[in-house]
Amino acid sequence: MEKLVFPDLYCPFPFQINKYVDVLEDYSFEWVQQFNLLTNPTEYQHFSKAKFFLLASYTYPYCQFEELKIANDWMSWLFVLDDQCDNSHLGQQPELLKGLHRRFLEILYGAETNQQDIPLSKALSNLRQRMLQIGDTKSFNYFVISVKKYFDGCMLEAINRASQTIPNLDNYEMIHLLSSAVDISIDLGEFCNHHLVSDFVRNHEIINRLRLMTNKIICWCNDIFSVPKEIANGDVHNSIIVLHYQHRIPLNQAVSIVADMHNQELKSFLDLQATIPYFKKEINDEVSKYLSGLHTWIRGNFDWSCHSGRYQTGNIKNQIPIQVG
């Protein structure tokens, strides 16, 4: 594989980190061990290198420790599921994955776990209970809708893998916006920060467009960092790999294209944000908090990607620099 050289990624938002990061690092293994989510030394090593506690600390810098633990455990749950799909080839078996997702949704809607449930199901039940202790049912139901979208995206990826289909760029982007779990992460901010989003803000056209743009920005950032891992695993679900096959261009050229897409989308995000009209003070304060959550996820995901060992394979020629505007 050619050595990959990455151009600058633009990000004007400041670095932030939760004050409980060190305590969270000590806690981060307790929950996954409690529910037996790591079953062997290799999984333990991969989990340790990924540093999910940093992702939670970067993307939820203002919340208190109990809320931060929920965020950390959700990140851990999602990535453990992703790894189990890869390692067991579950991610290539759509029907089996569909049954697993169905059970997960039953649990999120209140079903009790039983002896037949796998550890991930029991851990999910624990997450549901803790979230409902700190948040309201209405926000939780919106959250579950985002989880279902994530499952839908994972299913579409599994169908492609099973049929050995390489999607075109438009189809891939549609799938990745679902399977990225960015919507889950944004909604999780409502619980972590006790920020109940009104229907007015939730349904506002500009806010929804900014949320979608945040998803795109994070997806393209993730594709740039994760492409060596996906090439090594033979997974085509990456915009760089899709461009490489679709347009028969070198990987480094595809990297530059995706980096330009990322940077341009972020600049368009800032331009659109500047058009938000003035509302009454209560709504303005709510919008400000919501936008802060989008900003911290864009920047926090980048910072975590730089410090995590999850995507490192030794094929990257140089670290990806950040251009602060």
TrEMBL record:
InterPro entries attached to this UniProt entry: Isoprenoid_synthase_dom_sf, Terpene_cyclase-like_2
EC number: 4.2.3.-
Keywords noted in UniProt: Lyase, Magnesium, Metal-binding
Cofactor(s) recorded in Swiss-Prot or TrEMBL: Mg(2+)
Database matches in Gene3D superfamilies: Farnesyl Diphosphate Synthase (1.10.600.10)
Enzyme class: lyase
Molecular function, one GO term: metal ion binding
Family to which the UniProt record says this protein belongs: Belongs to the terpene synthase family.
Protein name, UniProt field: Terpene synthase
